[in-house]
Structures are given as structure tokens and as C-alpha cells.
Amino acid sequence: MSRLDLGDRTAALETAVRAAEGRIEPDLLDDARAVATRARERGGLSAEHTVVALAGATGSGKSSVLNAVAGVAVAQPGVRRPTTSHPMAAVWGPGADPLLDWLEVGRRHQVGAPSSDETPASPRRRTPVGDNSGLVLLDLPDHDSIVTEHRMRAERLVQRADLLVWVVDPQKYADAALHEGFLRPLAGRAEVVVVALNQADRLTPDETSAMLADLKRLVAQDGLEGARVLAVSAKTGQGMDELRGLLAKAAARREAATARLAADERAVAQKIVDRCGTPPPSRQGNQAKGDLVAALEAAAGVPTVVDAVRASARRDARAATGWPLTRWVGRLRKDPLRRLGLRTADREHRAPSGRDDLVRTSLPTARPAVRSAAASAVRRYVEEVTRGAADPWVLAARSRGQAGIDKLPDALDQAVATTRVEASRRPMWWSLVNTVQWTLIAVVVAGLLWLLGLFGFAYLQLPPPPTPVLTLPTWSGEGIVFPGAPESGGGDGLGVDPFRIPWPTLMVLGGLALGLLLALVCRVFGTLGARRRATGARRRLRQSVGVVADELVRTPVGDELARLASCRTAATVAAS
């Protein structure tokens, strides 16, 4: 017997039944409730008494066995069938009345307190246990009675008895009604079942041995391997001492009631565990979650938004750091984010009251297409996370998951629309580069004006004002000639004059070259920054889509899976 307390086992079984409501066939749940109810009711009654039921078919000799065990004529055997229509109790010791009331046994005989109508059952009258033993021995109606009411009484007491002694006879010990209708449903409860082959006095020793071996085989096939099987004869007393010893030991230990109830609860709890199916691996759920969010991202148009963020960031970077004279070309192309209605200013314009639920995108995704893609994603997710579960749980989880499919298109669109996809602030280096670019433009303009002034002096044939010249180092055959060094020359023709360029010309050409070079370098850095912005936007969009997936899919399905896990865990505890 398991060390688990019977009260804890009963509570676990009741938890499993509550969790399985509507998911497991009602008949099984009704059986589980009945077992739990019996456990609580029996637990509130006398623990000092052990209820032993003598059950069997018509003519098996239950009443004779009862008299032989009691040592007095408690029951009255007869030739008319069925003999026993109402159960009878032989009670050793006081205090069993509440228990017998619960059993609904009205006919009671106190063993050890002789009455005027009591007669000895045999010359070998024996009372196996003392007055305070706590044994309650029941003689049940025949389980194969043609009277339905009699059979129902027998079945009810078979369920409530602490220990079952099945009395069989050589003619009917292999009866299918007995094995299929009574012994097989008791599979796994061998410790509370005794099978007594009565009328052994009619058999030879060899026949008795062969019949006991066959009976043990049949009992083992019924799932009761290890159940005690013995041959008895109520007429001659053969085997009765062994049977009395078993009953006396069960009464003395006072554990049969707990053992029977625990066995009943284990059996029905194991059936519930089987109905739950096998739990899926934990990694499978994590993978399924990632696949679901990825599929909903695609359905919501997140890749399109991320591409738009990247392109818009590049456009913004070029507009801030590009060559000022060509920036207007980039402005001719419409902002990709504005085209999708995802610019912050556009959202605030569409929902000035701060109502985010009014914000929508302009993504070119048709609503039916989104719904179809979302439905496929939800179906795949449910299939993954419920793999191994029984069909009723799978169907319930699928129903919970599909309940939110109609809400997914709007919810996904709103999630994208309300997610901040732009950078919170412009990079500081953009402003610095912009200042440098306009400074270079100012230098170019100043140089052009200077050259224009010099051209005017030359055109008017006026003496030109002095123009500063920048002298640059040059290369000669003798090495580098630096500005200010004496000019080299000679007959070999290798003399080289230093390179001189007027400052106005240098301002124009240098300003243009540096501006273009700076624009090219900033374009590279702008592209890298655009990638970082796109990565950040994808992360935030994934979080937003994940919230929608949790709210409309994962949480409802998760509730069902949690209910399944609760049922499986509680039933496993009760079945341990």
C-alpha cells in the first residue's frame, strides 16, 4: 500500500475530477466522484471495524461459509434459489451500527452474545476472534440473481466492503459473469480480494489442486495476480481455519478499509491519467511559441515595416548628413514610414486624443489574407503544444485558440501601429555633420565670390588685388621640394617649381571635394545606423505581436494546457 495519506489521495482525485470536467467521459468522472465520496464517507465512520463481504453466485454456499466462520447458525441456508435477498451482517464487538447504517444492512447478528434462537452450526463451534475484534462479516445477495433488486444490493455492497471474499463452487468458478462483471473491474486490487473455492469436500485432492491452479490462472488474467485463493468446505471445515485466520488478521490490522479505498482510488485515477495522454516536451512549447510569433509577424506585415524603417532611416540620415546641394533629390522619394502611416507625427494627427485603439496602419495586407495566415499559425501552434494529449483536450485547446482568430487582424494591425518604430532622438553626429557640410558650402560660396571678384578686376583691366597663394610641396629628382626652399635647376632639366594654388580656387575645389567625401563616409555610417534602427524596431514589433499572441492565443490555450497538467498531476498523485 502506498504511503500517501488516504485524505491526500482523495483530495488529489477530486482535483483531477474538477480539472477533467467536460474533457473526459462522464461515466469515468462519475465513478471517480463515487470513489472519492465513498472514501470520505467511510473515513468518517468507524476505523475499528473491518467490513468483509461474502459474495458469490447462487448455490455457491455463501451463507454456509458465513455460519462456518462465525461458528453459529447466523444465516439460514436453503434449497430455494435465491436464498439471500437481503444482506445479513455478523458483527464481532460493539459500535458498528453507524457503519451498518451507511452500508444499509438491516439484518444484524452480534456474535459472542448468544440469543434464544441461536443454534450451533456444527459440533466444532468456533469463534475465531474476540468480542472486540471489530469484524463485520456480510452475507450478500447472489450476484447472478434473477431479481434485479438483489443484484443491485450485491453490487453496491461489493463497492463499499473493505475486504471481498468471493465464494465460488466447482461448477461455476470459471463463469464469465463472475470474471467479466466483478473480478475484472477489481483489477489492481489483489490485496483486498480473497477467492474461496467452496465445496472442496466433493473433490479429490488431485482435482482440488488442479482446480485451484486453474482458478489462480483465471484470477491472474482478471488483473488480480497475487490475490489469495484457497479451497474450503463449509460442510467439513476444510480450509476454514485458514480463512478464519485471514479474516482475523485483517480485523486485527484494521488496514483493509484504507487499502480497499486506496486501491479503488488508484484504479480510477490511473484511468484518468491514461485519458490525459502524454505530456509534450517543454522545449516543444518554446519552439511552438517562437514559430507562432514569427508567423503572426509575417501575417501582420512586420517584415514590410522593418524594411520601411531601414529605408526611412537611410533617407533621414542622407537628408541630415548628405551633400546639401543634392539633398533635395532624396526628398523627391516619399518617406516609406509615412507611406505606411507609421510616422509618429502621422499617428498623433490621426489620434489626437491619445486613443491608441483608433490608430491604424496603411499596410497593403488584405484582411482575409491576414485571417487565413493567422488561423494557420494558430492551428500549427495548438498541434505542437498539444502533441501527445488525448483528443478531447486537443479539441478543447483548439477551440480556445481559434476563438480569437477573428480579432487577430485588427489586433495585429493596432499592435504594429502603436509600436514606436522610429528612433527616440536623432543622433548627435547628424547635427555635427550637417553643420560641417553647410560650413563647407559657405567656404565654396566664399571662394566663388572671391574668384568672381578677381574675374571682374581682370575684365575691367584693373590691377588685380593681391591674392594669397598656397604653395604645396612637390617632387623633384633630388627629393621633395618644400614651400620656401630655394628652387633647384640646372642643365640637367630636372628643376621643379613648387606647386602653387590660389586660395579662392582652393576654397572652391577643396570645399566641394571635402563635402562630397564627407557625404560618402556618412552614407556608410547612415546605412549601419539604419540597420540598428531596423533591428530595434523588429525587436519592439516582435514584443507587440507577442503580446497579441499571448492575449488571444497562448493564454487561452495555456489555460487549457494548465488544466490538463493539473488533471494529469493530481491524477498521477492519486494513482501513485
TrEMBL record:
Domain G, first and last residues per copy: 52-176
UniProt superkingdom: Bacteria
Signal listed as a keyword: no
Alphabetic keyword roster: Membrane, Transmembrane, Transmembrane helix
Family annotation (SUPFAM superfamilies): P-loop containing nucleoside triphosphate hydrolases
InterPro entries noted in UniProt: GTP-bd (IPR006073), GTPase_Era-like (IPR005662), P-loop_NTPase (IPR027417)
Regions that span the bilayer: 435-460, 506-530
Region (Disordered): 111-133
Protein name in the entry: GTPase
Organism taxonomic ancestry: Bacteria, Bacillati, Actinomycetota, Actinomycetes, Micrococcales
